[in-house]
Design a protein that fits this description.
Blueprint: H1 2-21, H2 26-32, E1 35-42, H3 49-68, E2 76-83, H4 88-100, E3 106-108, H5 113-117, H6 120-126, E4 130-132, E5 152-154, H7 159-173, E6 178-184, H8 188-203, E7 207-214, H9 222-229, E8 235-237, H10 242-254, E9 261-262, H11 271-276, E10 284-288, H12 297-310, H13 316-335, H14 340-348, E11 353-355, E12 358-362, E13 368-369, E14 372-378, E15 381-388
Parallel strand pairs: 1-2, 1-3, 3-4, 4-5, 6-7, 6-8, 8-9, 9-10
Antiparallel strand pairs: 10-14, 11-12, 12-13, 14-15
Helix pairs in contact: 3-13, 4-6, 7-8, 13-14
């Protein structure tokens, strides 16, 4: 009898422990959880590694700060880092592994839109939230019919806002009335940006003089640029990754094209300067949500700490990763929970989150309502910054 009584006592103790673990209060987390596991699905090798490395650097810096300060209510954050090798098939596989085997309560990445989109089914099936810190395509948070993905969020702007901003900048700040667009074929990022730019530019009274297409990996753009030189236009809109964008800008300037070139956040990297060279990077503009020109003490402190830790100047992918880590920590802190559904609800109701890429509240399509910056380059160095305040974000258009 004593043996059974002891066994019964142990069962009761275990049940009490389990029941107490069902609560959402902060003390429960502190007592029962050793760590918060955040999965990172990033491009750390391959042609897109530059973007993933930046996200990892920012996330790592933020998590180190949080853990060194005692964690979240005494609980440490553990980053589960995976490398999708810039491959969408591997990204999909890793996402499923992070959620079903590795115990991630939330994930971040991939950093590029076409890779990120392949991870959405796993997030939706497992009902575990995932965050795009760097992927801007509209299709990241909504499907082709405009329906919001319940478990997908973004901490940077989307392409409808980015493309519209650059179209309005061309019209209102540069006085442009005719534009040429250049896009990468079969790339959701580039195609979406051209679509939103074209819509806003034409609605504002502008005309698209011509639209050009190139293939991923192209290196010789002489023929395309010679065709553009025959057009009558005021600006070129170039939403491209830095590899091709750098070559196009360099070859355009070498061909005698002097009109403003409007790029996007994918070129916000020092590698652009290495590829194009300083003389080509004049009268060039790009959109971003982070700038070293920002005199806000919070931003300047981040820049100083990042340089001390990594020895380099931070760029937008670093800052976005940093903010995303604190965005997650904020949700855990506010709710006192590691339950994925609780975190999902917390992400959706975030208000006035203050980061180094701006202050934002989460919008109904799971995009942050935040300002966007248009940066002007002189010899490849950012010298001017025009801030465009948050606005009702354009509704993504259903795809045919």
């Amino acid at each position: 009898m004593k043996r059974y009584s002891l066994a019964l006592l142990l069962i009761v103790v275990l049940l009490i422990g389990l029941l107490s673990g069902c609560g959402g209060d902060k003390e429960t987390i502190k007592a029962t959880q050793a760590e918060a596991k955040i999965g990172l699905n990033l491009e750390l090798t391959g042609p897109l590694a530059y973007y993933g490395e930046g996200t990892l650097n920012g996330m790592t810096m933020a998590v180190d700060e949080i853990n060194q300060a005692g964690g979240i209510n005494g609980m440490k954050i553990n980053l589960i880092v995976t490398d999708n090798k810039s491959d969408p098939v591997r990204a999909a596989y890793l996402q499923n592994r992070l959620l079903t085997r590795d115990g991630a309560i939330t994930t971040v990445g991939p950093s590029t839109s076409f890779n990120f989109i392949e991870t959405i089914p796993a997030a939706m099936e497992n009902r575990i939230p995932t965050i795009a810190s760097h992927s801007t395509a509209d299709e990241v948070t909504v499907d082709r019919n405009g329906n919001v993905y319940a478990y997908v969020f973004r901490t940077t702007f989307n392409d409808s806002f980015q493309g519209t901003t650059m179209a309005n900048f061309a019209l209102n700040n540069l006085g442009a009335r005719r534009a040429v667009t250049i896009e990468e074929q079969n790339n959701v990022y580039s195609e979406g940006l051209v679509r939103s730019f074209t819509r806003a530019f034409e609605e504002g009274g502008g005309t698209i003089a011509s639209s050009k297409i190139y293939q991923k990996g192209d290196k010789d753009f002489e023929s395309m640029l010679n065709e553009i030189k025959q057009e009558e236009y005021d600006v070129i809109f170039l939403p491209a990754y830095f590899q091709e964008a750098g070559l196009i800008i360099k070859q355009a300037r070498d061909a005698g094209i002097t009109q403003p070139i409007l790029a996007t956040d994918a070129v916000d990297t020092p590698v652009l300067l290495e590829i194009a060279g300083p003389s080509a990077l004049n009268n060039v503009y790009l959109t971003t949500d982070f700038s070293s020109l920002n005199t806000d003490p919070k931003v300047q402190n981040f820049i100083a700490d990042f340089k001390k830790k990594f020895g380099t100047e931070p760029i937008s992918s670093d800052a976005r990763g940093y903010d995303t880590a604190y965005f997650i920590a904020d949700a855990i802190e506010r709710t006192g929970s590691l339950d994925p559904q609780v975190l999902t609800d917390a992400y959706a109701t975030t208000e006035n989150f203050n980061g180094v890429t701006g202050t934002f509240s989460m919008g109904p399509e799971h995009n942050p309502i935040k300002s966007i910056l248009v940066i002007g380059l002189v010899n490849g160095v950012p010298t001017t910054s025009v801030e465009v305040q948050p606005q009702p974000q354009p509704q993504p258009q259903p795809q045919q």
